[in-house]
Amino acid sequence: MAQTSKDIDSKTGEIRADFAILDRVIHGKKLVYLDNAATSQKPKAVVDALVDYYNNYNANVHRGIHTMSEEATAAYEGVRETIKGFINAVDTCEVIYTRGTTEGINLVAQTWGRINILPGDEIVLSPMEHHSNLVPWQVLAAERDARLVFLKLDDQGRIDMEHASATINAKTKLLAISHMSNVLGTINPVKELAQMAHAHGAVVIADGAQSVPHMACDVQDLGVDFFVFSFHKMLGPTGVGVLWGKKQLLEAMPPYQYGGDMIASVQREKSRYNQLPWKFEAGTPNVADVIAAGKAIEYLQTLGMDWVRDHEVELTAYAMQKLGTLKGIEIYGPRDAKERGGVISFNIKGLHPHDLGQILNESGIAIRAGHHCCQPLMKDLGVMGTARASFYIYNTKAEVDVLAAALCEADKVLGNVALR
Amino acid sequence: MAQTSKDIDSKTGEIRADFAILDRVIHGKKLVYLDNAATSQKPKAVVDALVDYYNNYNANVHRGIHTMSEEATAAYEGVRETIKGFINAVDTCEVIYTRGTTEGINLVAQTWGRINILPGDEIVLSPMEHHSNLVPWQVLAAERDARLVFLKLDDQGRIDMEHASATINAKTKLLAISHMSNVLGTINPVKELAQMAHAHGAVVIADGAQSVPHMACDVQDLGVDFFVFSFHKMLGPTGVGVLWGKKQLLEAMPPYQYGGDMIASVQREKSRYNQLPWKFEAGTPNVADVIAAGKAIEYLQTLGMDWVRDHEVELTAYAMQKLGTLKGIEIYGPRDAKERGGVISFNIKGLHPHDLGQILNESGIAIRAGHHCCQPLMKDLGVMGTARASFYIYNTKAEVDVLAAALCEADKVLGNVALR
Amino acid sequence: MSLSDDLYRETILDHYHNPRNNGTIDDATAKIEGVNPLCGDELTLYLNVSEDGKIQDVKLQAHGCSINMASGSMMSEAVMGQSVERAKEIIETFKEMMLNKEQDVPLEDDLEDLEALRGVKKYPVRIKCALLPWNTLLDGLAEACAAKK
Amino acid sequence: MSLSDDLYRETILDHYHNPRNNGTIDDATAKIEGVNPLCGDELTLYLNVSEDGKIQDVKLQAHGCSINMASGSMMSEAVMGQSVERAKEIIETFKEMMLNKEQDVPLEDDLEDLEALRGVKKYPVRIKCALLPWNTLLDGLAEACAAKK
Ligand SMILES: Cc1ncc(COP(=O)(O)O)c(C=O)c1O
Ligand SMILES: Cc1ncc(COP(=O)(O)O)c(C=O)c1O
Questions:
Q1: Could you report the predicted ipTM of this complex, rounded to two decimals?
Q2: Considering only alpha carbons, which residue of chain A is nearest residue C36?
Q3: Residue B221 burial by Cβ neighbours in a 10 Å radius (0-12, 13-18, 19+)
Q4: CATH architecture of B5-30+304-413
């Protein structure tokens, strides 16, 4: 499994050829795209799948009897098989297409949650949750008179497991936890936490928005009840994602949206609903993007998720070491690259992340600056925001070097002293 | 505004060149695509917009400070201007992006509806509503102890306005009505109905899924409060649509989904929400498809919606006349092409729509067969389903001829006597 | 192969235009409705099952396409007079014939008439039409057996 | 033009590193918080408005980027001692300078110092950073005037 850095670099070279956008020039500099935690770039195979669909067999699915509708339906439903294999689901009917992670979580909150969360119940969250895995639970808790309870982090942004085992208790009805933090990079011990929660009869939803793109994820091994992710962060198109859930739970849930395709029969006054997974997919679905998402998974499967992970661990370790030498820099999250994903959030004394982002952009480097949809975590860290560089399969050590050099430049532009 | 048939045919020839899929061959025959009410085909400009986005400026929107994120945000938000102009909205903040018509209606039902529909209230619907504009109201009515009340149709599938003016009364809280029927083709007098509803203080939602693609729609002139449509039926990509609503109503509504982008500030226990339109757009949006949808509108604007409508009226009149000569055929909906859209639903005595659809497919003709997500209407018509041919800008009279010839053939294949 | 060879063979059209065992049973042991949610095809199946588990009578009232009607008509002939057990075997065999993607499942000699429906397998959307009567029968047998106890 | 010419001019960096009127006012006529929801920048603005409608004192506590901080600092200098009416005019002028897409809006001579922020207009994302203090001031003036009544 361990490759030499040479291997990785030559493979990365091949990969880069599949991403036309990486040739883009920004302010006269070659694009260095380090905003992958926000959204990834898309390989030729994914873009081609869209063009192929629209130019050759675009049709509405399920209800059509003509050839193109059959082809579109087969391709659209076939991707469920691909996803099932990718995350090791038990059955394709557990794979629900959504717009993305956010919609998946809202679906669970508004269907499973409204029925199962009762007054006095506790919903346990980590303090590093993305707004998407926090605000829906705030609203549900307020509606159902339940309480949000937060886990604790250590000084490297890892969950304090002793505190967790006391916090997850008989009152816990739901554990909502990100598999990988989009700020700290922390990979949370979801499996252990899920065991704790299950021991008390609670249900577990894991937010896989940052983990599924970057490491092998097995829903059965993780032992969670619901799992959500977005394709746009994993080489796929915008506008499509997955809610995976245990069949038994999904079956007991009411539908989320109502309309075409999710019904079994409709009368004027009442209707019967379709079986899984269509019960949760009202209206004409995002056919083209689902089909293209299938190609994104196939691309990752060809690389192998172990390769993806190894590549990012190596890149992250290199970047942490390189950036760590800059004066006045603070890097958040676990210090060991093996405990984290390829997301590096940092601040440089006296340099506001916005200014950093702007100045790096002048060198063609795309990073993100701000609260990363994690305002409560920013508060815990005692900062207004952070700068964040995040990696993917096409990034190289050379790009990390460009980043480090540009950070020194930024310090000069802003008349700061930190790096001098 | 009136063109000769020659004009229309030469323009249609030019248009067809923009749709690569129309060269497709099915069972050795050139594709005749007559399933446009289900979904339309996409011109080169729309497909190119997707490729351009993914190959040149794919980035997450709103929160990014780097060039590509700025470009993506500008393009994504710019489409709101285009839509505002297209439907004559008052303000871009009234234009909410959705997955499609179905999601738009569910959004209104679950936010506006849950607050405003009270026990005993009446929701008035037409009997021709698509399941998407029926089932959400059934569920809401059950939840809120309200009642669904149905308008009446005459023998040409037009709303009985006298009955309507008695049915829409002080108890009416909502009128939910399709602008154009996807089965009968009927163009409903939404403006007059909205006036009746408003006279009693009711709110009006119009389903523009079939009208917006095919005729000029002006939300201010129609005088409705909410208006919904899907881009996939109007040359745009799958997975994106619009909810337009009056600002005042939208502002008073709670959000629909919670998460990133829809918040103003988040604390552990509670959050404040963003302003319109983002309040209703939680999570990473379907950026690519929104941008491509903008190109679809521009394509239609270049043709001119009056041209589109004229073309379809001419084609529909021709088809009704041609198909009308077949023995044993029954065509539903208004007899005058000027009163209807380019949707022709029919049955032929002794020939089940499924069998028809299958046999036409053998001649490369794509039509739809079934209940078209209008089961209650099927029941009113006393049929299990219908066959449906539906037209768009690229269809020709020659294609109508192919359809008519294939219908006679079908009759032979099925050993039926109706057409003999 | 043409559409007429696959789907619209003479046997099928004959059963479609003249469905066998079309009607109702007044004192049915079981009466079951089947629906195909996507196309709206409907079917009511009546069963008379004797004390010793024989299908004494089966009747159908169907509103569907040619494949759906013909399949129901042929099914009624295939199971009429059979034991519940044997009927279940026949259903199993037929479903296998329709659904097995890997290989062509052969029919026993006494089910030869069903051969005419084999061509439906090539048309994925229509398989549901062919299966509706059989799945409804399966429900009906379960109900009939439950009723006996 | 480079980034340093547009955004990070010396005047701006000077205000950023040494913000004027930084602090709080104990008995403020109005105290208003401003937030930029997308980047999380925060700002608290304190105002003392006299009976006859003069801004006697203005103080800011800001946590933001260079543009945000510099804009707030320059603003405080521009409106200090001005009448509420004149302050509103200045806000209007500044917003016009930032937001007018058609043309370059000139500044009156006495507002010359604000010229340094004109370059921000080229960076759409940063316009919000520059405007936050000004919008907050607008809210503050409304509150101060309401409090007086
Ligand atoms: C009249 C009408 N309303 C609503 C819909 C639902 O639109 P969508 O499936 O794009 O949500 C359709 C089309 O399917 C329709 O024809
Ligand atoms: C950890 C995490 N959860 C949830 C989300 C929300 O995903 P989306 O915006 O695709 O719905 C994101 C990314 O934005 C994320 O990083």
A1: 0.94
A2: A264
A3: exposed
A4: Alpha-Beta Complex (3.90)
